[in-house]
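hey all, quick one before standup. I had two proteins in the batch that finished overnight and I want to keep them in one place so we stop losing track of which output belongs to which input. First protein below, input sequence then structure tokens straight from the run.
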Amino acid sequence: MTGERTRMMPVGVVVRRLPGVTRWQKWSWRPVSLLPGAGEAHWKVLRADGDLVEYHAATLSLELHRTETEAYLIALSDKVPSVYVVMRAAPELEPGVPLELLLMTASAHEGLDYADSSEVIVEKVPMTPGLIAWIREFVDMHHEEEIFHKRQRDRTRVDLEEDGIGDPRIRQLGDVYRAPGLRKKDTIQ
């Protein structure tokens, strides 16, 4: 195998703020696009059009590992190839910063693992064509198809001997498979 075992790239996340749909949610925040190779940013306003505001919220490191190429192939084979962005609500950070961006991954397995948690928000963001090519090159370099081996049935007969019925040291006169409620109760009288 040639090439590096891991690969990293800084990727900026653009978050769009829209007015909320209900009266309980004033604003709706959603990651909408990626900026491969972006520099550091902290909720920098990129575009404002009335109530719609787009921010370069943060720049996260997108890491690829050669052992997860199957998960990258699943993400690339989606109808819209996407990266998973993991965030959490952070009202305690700053008054104008509603979300903390924690992680970005191209692994479909890792993204779905984070989606099982109720403590974080996981959103799929479409990959740019350059990011798709970068990930595909890494997968082509490292992916090895796993060969499926069907397990053969063991020919040993295990039903010829009855074990596990009970403790052999205790003598039982009745049916060991009877329901416990049908047993006569011992009474002292």
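OK second protein, same deal, sequence then tokens:
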Amino acid sequence: MFRIPTGPLVLGLAGLLPFLWGALTAMVPALGDWALLTLGGRFTAPFVQLSYGSVILSFMSGVLWGFATRQDRWLPYALSVIPALWAFFMVGGGPTTAAINLVAGFVGLLLLDWQFAKAGWAPPWWMKLRALLTGIVVISFLPLIL
């Protein structure tokens, strides 16, 4: 199997910190209260996960767009905008609904990642990294959903 380069792995794992922080503030009420008083509501669950999740889905659209630039076809470009549009249209309706929709968006993104990797548009190690990160992101939303 292909090894994930250190840079993308470390930065990808660091990018999970807001998701994990949000899950912790949801699961540990005392931590959530402290964060609310000290850092403000934007940095507590559900707000940190929902806003950051929307940002990351949009960011990943940009990554897919970058892969699409290596092709001379319109399909990869069209596919690459789906995660950002999903985040824009589907995050709303309350925290539980928004969290469910973001989880669906990240699972859908993983399917797009797989398509890009299968077509040879992404690096060989891409799916190994994306499966790891997506799994942790989805788990981090469970405290908002359950």
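Flagging for whoever picks this up: The mean pLDDT is 96. The radius of gyration is 16 Å.
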